[in-house]
Write a structure and sequence with these properties.
mainly alpha
Length: 194
């Protein structure tokens, strides 16, 4: 029998496992999607289910949502949407609802929520328990930015890191429900507004 003293504790293993799951989901998404990763609904759905499975294994999938967290998320999402709108001279108009847009909206919601459960749920908790909250915000932001490279390219990396840090701050203020609400709100607004 091996004593507990003989087996060194490695708390960072959970963080590395979370990063491996997230990276694997991203590689699978790119493989399924082909050259148009951002436009592939099957790739997005498979990606989301892998992330949800990882979050479930890591026991971060707890559907407790407080109204305060949703409110924080809506305000945080409004900040994400307001920034590009303030710097744009194009007139604001709404996209006419249609079946394709509704399906896209459901998939976007699934992707945003699964990313938040895996990145600012599973990964965030693992990093925070090992290195603290600031490290959790930064590591989650970097991972968030890296998984978006196949979708938006390297030029979007600084913006994605910044958005990731903001979502991490919202996670600290209102939990995963706040970051998931903000992420979903911002992504949906980007598609419904031109």
């Amino acid at each position: 029998m091996i004593s507990e003293r003989a087996v060194p504790r490695r708390p960072y293993v959970h963080a590395l496992a979370a990063i491996s799951f997230i990276a694997g989901a991203s590689v699978l998404r790119a493989a399924v999607s082909g050259p148009r990763v951002a436009a592939s609904i099957p790739g997005a759905v498979i990606f989301s289910f892998v992330l949800l499975a990882a979050a479930g294994v890591g026991q971060t999938f707890r559907p407790h949502v407080a109204m305060k967290s949703v409110g924080i998320g809506l305000l945080g999402g409004a900040v994400l949407v307001a920034m590009p709108l303030l710097h744009s001279s194009a007139p604001l108009c709404f996209v006419e609802p249609n079946t394709a847009l509704l399906v896209w909206s459901l998939v976007v919601t699934l992707v945003a929520c699964s990313e938040e459960l895996a990145i600012r749920g599973l990964l965030f908790n693992a990093v925070r328990s090992t290195w603290g909250t600031t490290s959790a915000v930064v590591v989650a932001a970097v991972v968030f930015a890296l998984i978006h490279i196949p979708l938006y390219g390297w030029r979007a990396l600084p913006l994605d890191v910044t958005v990731g840090i903001w979502l991490g701050v919202l996670r600290c203020w209102g939990g995963v429900a706040a970051s998931a609400t903000a992420h979903t709100f911002a992504d949906l607004a980007a598609g419904w507004l031109l």
